[in-house]
Design brief:
This protein has 318 residues and is mainly α. It is built from 11 helices and 3 strands; from the N terminus they run ααααββαααααααβ. A 3-stranded antiparallel β-sheet has the order 2-1-3.
Length: 318
């Protein structure tokens, strides 16, 4: 079987797969808490565990105008003292950020020593050290930042196992999608590109492809990865079947949000943090339904991955 890298190399898998395989190890704010869309695919999540999303700003060059640097500070009529005051405020902001990140605490380094050349074999397909290290470094950076803010250390042994499991799950789904001869039409591919572009803050799928190509990935590889992503999404849809969400499930989810809000208020001395007020149930019912649907899809995907792993021949060397 020809080895086909999935979109995880540059964009990440769907939220359902990431949650099922343990790739999404970051704790984000629940969109429903802020009345926002809860369908935030981490193109991270594990995109992040699998790779990095394209940075829309990174595609542009930051060119400074030397004449602007030499300009008379008083030419615009602004008071230099006011400028100094602004700089002081900026300095205060930087100090606050340093405090949040643990003061002078240095960012830890990922431990990539003794990584075997072949991290795992999945039905005779190899997951190489290069693939593993790329995925691990991206995931480690996220975990390290979170751990520093909480004054903790990253359990790198545990994280390595999680990343390896995610890569194994990815390969199993790729193989199963190919075995089922799932098709990906041009319309499916374009729709997926447009969705990923929107999630990445870009205006179109073409802009997303161009951004990835500028970062060094050949366009043909990008399109192959998107095609495989579409097939995996279809595989997950087949595994999930028709998902129904009941009113009782929505109400329970809402009650859990309210309970979390009350617990947060107690920690804050009885006051809810600004912007964290939970809207009325009817205002976010659609978001909650989508969230529950995603949870059920994730559970179905996890079951499929576990089944494929039991039936397959998987060897882990890490």
């Amino acid at each position: 079987m020809k080895k086909v890298k999935t979109l995880t190399a540059v964009l990440g898998l769907s939220a359902a797969f990431l949650a099922a395989c343990g790739g999404d190890n970051t704790e984000g704010n629940n969109g429903a808490e802020n009345g926002a869309d809860t369908n935030n695919t981490e193109v991270n999540e594990d995109a992040d565990s699998e790779g990095n999303e394209p940075d829309a700003e990174g595609a542009s060059d930051n060119v400074e105008d030397p004449e602007a640097e030499d300009a008379d500070p008083d030419a615009d009529g602004e008071d230099p003292a006011a400028d100094g005051e602004g700089e002081g405020e900026a300095g205060d902001d930087e100090t606050s950020m340093d405090d949040a990140m643990g003061g002078d605490q240095e960012m830890p380094e990922p431990d990539l020593e003794d990584i075997p050349d072949v991290v795992a074999e999945v039905n005779s397909e190899e997951i190489t050290a290069e693939e593993f290290e790329t995925a691990y470094e991206g995931q480690f950076m996220q975990m390290a930042q979170q751990s520093m803010m909480m004054g903790q250390e990253v359990d790198q042994d545990q994280l390595k196992q999680q990343v390896a499991d995610t890569l194994i799950g990815t390969e199993l789904l790729v193989q199963e999608a190919e075995n089922r001869d799932l098709e990906a039409s041009e319309e499916d591919i374009q729709n997926t590109l447009d969705e990923l572009a929107e999630q990445s803050g870009l205006e179109s799928g073409d802009e997303l492809v161009n951004a990835i190509v500028e970062q060094g990935t050949p366009e043909e590889e990008v399109m192959n990865q998107v095609e495989m992503q579409v097939k995996i999404d279809k595989l997950i849809e087949e595994a999930s079947g028709d998902i129904e969400v009941t009113d009782e499930e929505v109400e329970q989810q809402y009650e859990e949000l309210v309970a979390q809000q009350e617990a947060m208020m107690e920690e804050q001395g009885g006051e809810a943090p600004e912007g964290s007020e939970i809207p009325e149930l009817d205002e976010i019912r659609g978001d909650l339904e989508e969230q529950i649907r995603g949870q059920k899809e994730s559970e179905a995907t996890q079951e499929l991955v576990e089944q494929l792993r039991e039936e397959g021949d998987v060897t882990v060397n890490i």
